[in-house]
User: Fold this.
Amino acid sequence: MAIDEGTLYPLLRRLESQGLLVSEWREEDKRNKRFYKISRDGKLVLKQLLAEWQGIGLSLDEILKESVHGTH
Amino acid sequence: MELIDRYLQAVKFWLPKNQKQDIIAELSEDLRSQVEDREGELGRELNEAETADLLKQRGRPVLVANRFLPQEHLIGPVLFPIYVFVLKIVTAFYLVPWVLVWIGIAVSRAAHSGGSLLGTIGSFWTSFWPVVFFMIGGVTSVFAVLERVQAKSKFLEQWDPRKLPPVRDPNRIPLTNSVIELVANLVCCIWLIAGMWYQTVFHFSGVVITLVPAWRYFFWGFVLVTVINTAAAGINLLKPYWTWARASVRLVSDLIGSALFCWFMKSDILVGISVPNVAAEQTAQITHAINWWNSKMFPAAVAACVIIAAANTYRIVRVRTKASHPVALNTASGAC
Assistant:
């Protein structure tokens, strides 16, 4: 998924400040890099959001099916 | 790399103190990785123009830093429509009257002391801006405080649907309006007939006011208008919905009243005033000043009459439109 760095880093920091991500500085390829990892709370929220997302997806599928059948 | 350091310094300036180092370290590493990747593709070091392009893609320092800051606003989207509404009300009921009063005073001064028009405009300009500044500044400050209070207490979320105002029908005549109109016109009618009956000299506690003979025409005109208005207010009280006929009668009555009023302003109505223990020269000056002011206020009177006529015409159009589209609009069940 293409995402602008100017959007990505502030977003990661916001998620970290909400306790959904944890981060640490690590050296890789002779460079210091910050690595982000999903936290335990983050996994719980992700589970809820996925369920919500799938619910919306199913509802949309139903609406689209009805509209397709309605037009033909 | 000097360009990148300058860029990072500019971003750092706008960042919150406690996060400056951390964010800059992350941004710095990301930028340098990007430069290295690009250099790997080209097989050479980036020149200044190419580095500048890369930084331009990242965005202006203040905007980049802004994305790391919490979202802040002086007046938020919840209060903003109310803020604009209050500004409009304050403009209509404070700023506009202030400007009109100022123009009235300026015209009077110019007529008496003979000041130049340019000087008057300059004086207006220097008085106008501080008034506008304090008006907008005052309202904005109050709303900025309310925004902070609302963010904490959420007072706008506490409301009761049962306290909402009833549905308004623009063609329904409010009871209070009819009562006020009826009483005011009745009092005016009685006062005219009982106190001003077809005469031009009036005595009030020793003060004698003499009007021009043309007052007799005004007298009958004003009596006619107040009688029509009293009758109309009485009917409105019993059947409180505007109809085409009643709105037309109101327009005609207001047009007659307006024409009389404008004529009255231009007619040098006062012949003289006699006050005990006041010299005749002084009372003559007062008489002249009152007539002069009446004459000067004539354009304002005409403007007011045009507004009244326009409002009456709009009412007729509204009533007629409603009559031709009764389903689309709210029905006036009590209309006659």
Observations:
- The first helix of chain B runs from residue 2 to 14.
- Residues 327-336 of chain B have pLDDT under 50 and may be disordered.
